[in-house]
Write a structure and sequence with these properties.
The chain is built from 25 helices and 26 strands. The protein has 716 residues and is an alpha+beta fold. The protein folds into six domains: 62 residues, Helix Hairpins; 264 residues, D-amino Acid Aminotransferase, Chain A, domain 1; 84 residues, Beta Barrel (OB fold (Dihydrolipoamide Acetyltransferase, E2P)); 73 residues, 5' to 3' exonuclease, C-terminal subdomain (DNA polymerase, domain 1, Orthogonal Bundle), CATH 1.10.150.20; 94 residues, Orthogonal Bundle (DNA polymerase, domain 1), CATH 1.10.150.20; 69 residues, Rossmann fold (3-Layer(aba) Sandwich). Helix 17 crosses helix 18. The protein is globular and about 95 Å long.
């Protein structure tokens, strides 16, 4: 027997011992130390080894028991209202924390009335359906939540989606009466998915053709909806459930006052009455205890269902309370995705390397023996920091359980010490930055993360470059990490400001660049210089803990309002940035959701000489920052704040200007803009196809409604 065979024999023996131990715990003591998915992964490894060495198979072996980016060819569709995404929870404690957070925003009476409606979270593709005069006119994908793809013809092939809205009675309760008219426009949202059986059938056909297989049912559903030929979509036997009714159907459709649907549960009843297929497993829950029971019950039936689910969606049932809670970032406060436990597998840590981020943070990253988890091959997982490694007890060479948080992010959950051979190595944090050799430091304040203090560290520079040109920042098409690496390696750039000095000829010496491709990239770079929103510019600076949402809040708070600055036009955004630069810690903490730590990071960034020199370099490169609160160049600054103290809500589309431009005008004239109608609202500006909910509320509160013509006279 060779040395390699002897090592495999020892591995097989250890695997058998560990698998039998966990089988004993589960079947004899009804107790688990690792998940069934992790145990199955160990069994799979044992089976594969035994297939390589059949002579090592023994009768007592456990194996011997009987037993999305939208396609350019699709038309882009703007959603009438943003399609928001949910924040995630993974435990009962997460759910309790969520309820505690939102309860603080409500009155005692509202808190006493909180109840829930729970839906199975289907692993499919979110869609929006727009019916006009009762007929399906537009069907679209979620896209980025604001803009989706028009896939109407493909969605029409799905039998579960009605082409025409009907009026039915639900049980004994006539939600819709024969005399009632369906509103001119009805907006419905739902999920498109494919059954497990159909998924397997199509993959079998793909295999016979020698074509690539779909990783999971969601990918197959998304791929089917994005087929350019509807005939292909029709052959996939897709299914769909409706879960959200955006349109308010008026007083005739519900017993609620002013035609307002009172609960989310009622929305599902109305959807069913209109002819939509709704999930029969969805359930009303009076308390969080009942939510936990529903979550557990759903997990139990997960494998029996004909489709994939990865958790439940928990929604505040009262529509009034849900709307009052509002939105934070891109997620509604009044709903959360309560996910099932992580999908897990076992693998081996082959090495631990250090990754240097753009802020200098040194992050240990585990290099894994590639393993499939939830249909995706994982070869790396972050270990976060030195404390996390110590807590887990991880060594190089260890067998570990790896999962994907929310079925997405790779995470090491547990070490299996019983499988150690004695050759595992303890990991030690380096004393110096692996990229530049600088002595690493831990900033004061009890921080657990080691950092490279060198402002010119090559690794930090690369990561910062990647961030600067990424989506959400300058977003330069065609300029990804690989090209950034080539530019840095060829010494064509030393910081992102150098990008704007590049000429076509500079790129021709780089591998993979011809004259046309070089010209296209230079044009893209120059185009990004011409106009960038203030919030995107702030985000591009890469200030620690300042993400996209915080950047928007900072831009809103520190924008110079009231017209062009002395610098004029778009350049006035630099004046707003100057205001942010000079802000005190106290001023910064007045911005929503900014505390002392983030305020300190912002202040520190603007106090560093190298950063100020970088800003000056960008300014000299001709970067134009767009201030959303500044009138275009040449327009007269309004002399009188004639709308001072007035609160406006806009609904429907305007002909003379965009809604963003209208909001800008209102703010410039001293007014305020709100997204929802309340008793404090002064005017509801109603354009074409106004939202019935806002109109209904305005009537209820006696708010003055004005048409676009009156609004234009008001701001003249």
């Amino acid at each position: 027997m060779t040395k390699a065979e002897a090592q495999k024999r020892r591995r097989i023996e250890k695997l058998k011992k560990v698998i039998n131990y966990h089988r004993y715990l589960y079947h004899v003591h009804d107790r688990q130390e690792i998940s069934e998915a992790a145990l199955d992964s160990l069994k799979k490894e044992l089976f594969d080894l035994e297939q390589l060495f059949p002579a090592l198979i023994t009768p007592d072996s456990p194996t011997q028991r009987v037993g999305g980016r939208p396609l350019e060819k699709f038309e882009k569709i703007r959603h009438p209202y943003p399609m928001l995404s949910f924040n995630d929870a993974f435990s009962e404690q997460d759910m309790k924390d969520w309820l505690e957070r939102i309860s603080k925003l409500l009155t005692a009476k509202e808190r006493s009335r909180i109840d829930f409606f729970c839906e199975l979270k289907i692993d499919g593709l979110a869609i929006e359906l727009i019916y006009k005069q009762g007929i399906l006119k537009v069907g679209s994908t979620r896209g980025d939540g604001i803009i989706g793809e028009d896939v109407t013809q493909n969605l029409k092939t799905i039998e579960a989606i009605p082409l025409k809205l009907e009026k039915f009675k639900i049980q004994s309760r006539p939600f819709i009466k024969e005399r009632d008219e369906i509103p001119p426009q009805v907006v419905v949202r739902g999920e498109v998915f494919i059954s497990k059986k159909e998924f397997e059938r199509i993959n079998r056909e793909q295999r016979k053709k020698g074509a690539s297989l779909f990783a999971n049912p969601r990918n197959m559903a998304a791929g089917s909806i994005r087929q350019l030929d509807p005939q292909i979509t029709s052959q996939r036997n897709l299914d769909s459930y409706a879960y959200e009714l955006i349109t308010n159907l008026g007083p005739a459709f519900t017993k609620a006052s002013a035609g307002k649907l009172q609960t989310h549960e009622e929305k599902h009843q109305i959807l069913k009455a209109l002819g939509f297929k709704t999930n029969p497993h969805n359930k009303y829950c009076k308390s969080l205890k009942e939510v936990f029971e529903f979550h557990k019950a759903s997990q139990k039936i997960r494998e029996k269902l004909s489709y994939e689910i990865d958790g439940i969606v928990v929604i505040i049932n009262s529509n009034k309370i849900f709307e009052r809670l509002g939105v934070v970032g891109k997620s509604p406060r009044g709903a959360i995705a309560y996910k099932f436990p992580l999908k897990q597998a076992t693998t081996i840590i082959e090495d631990i390397i250090i990754q240097v981020g753009r802020t200098g943070a040194l992050t240990p990253v585990a290099i894994l023996k590639p393993v499939q988890v939830g249909g995706v091959t994982i070869s790396r997982a972050t270990l976060h920091n030195e404390e996390e490694i110590r807590k887990l007890g991880v060594k190089i060479g260890d067998t570990v359980i790896v999962g994907r948080a929310g079925d997405v992010i790779p995470d090491i959950l547990k070490v299996l010490p019983a499988l150690r051979t004695g050759k595992e190595k303890k990991f030690r944090m380096p004393e110096k930055c692996p990229a530049c050799g600088s002595i690493i430091v831990k900033p004061p304040g009890g921080e657990v993360v080691w950092r490279c203090p060198n402002l010119k560290c090559s690794a930090k520079l690369r990561e910062y470059f990647y961030h600067f040109v990424s989506k959400g920042a300058f977003d330069i098409p065609g300029l990804g990490p690989k090209i950034v690496d080539k530019l840095i390696d060829a010494a064509l750039v030393s910081d992102p400001a150098d990008l704007f000095k590049l000429e076509t000829g500079d790129l021709l010496s780089l591998e993979g660049f011809a004259e046309k491709s070089a010209k296209n990239l230079i044009e893209a770079i120059q185009l990004s210089r011409g106009k960038i929103q203030l919030s995107k510019f702030i985000y591009a600076l890469g200030i620690r803990n300042v993400g996209e949402e915080t950047s928007i809040d900072l831009a809103e708070h520190f924008s110079i309002r009231g017209g062009p600055s002395a610098q004029g036009g778009l350049a006035s955004g630099w004046a707003s940035l100057e205001k942010l630069k000079k802000a005190s810690l106290e001023d910064l903490q007045k911005v929503m959701d900014i505390g002392p730590v983030v305020a300190g990071n912002i202040s520190d960034w603007f106090s560093q000489k190298s950063n100020l020199e970088f800003l000056e370099k960008l300014k000299k490169a001709g970067i134009k920052i767009e201030n959303p609160f500044v009138l275009p160049e040449g327009q007269r600054k309004p002399e009188k704040k004639k709308l001072l103290g007035k609160i406006f809500v806009l609904t429907g589309s305007l002909e003379a200007m965009t809604r963003d431009r209208a909001k800008e005008k209102i703010r410039l004239m001293g007014g305020e803009v709100s997204e929802s109608v309340s008793k404090k609202t002064d005017f509801l500006v109603a354009g074409k196809e106004p939202g019935l909910t806002k109109v209904s509320k305005a009537k209820e509160f006696g708010i003055k409604m004005i048409k676009e013509k009156e609004f234009l006279q008001l701001i003249d």
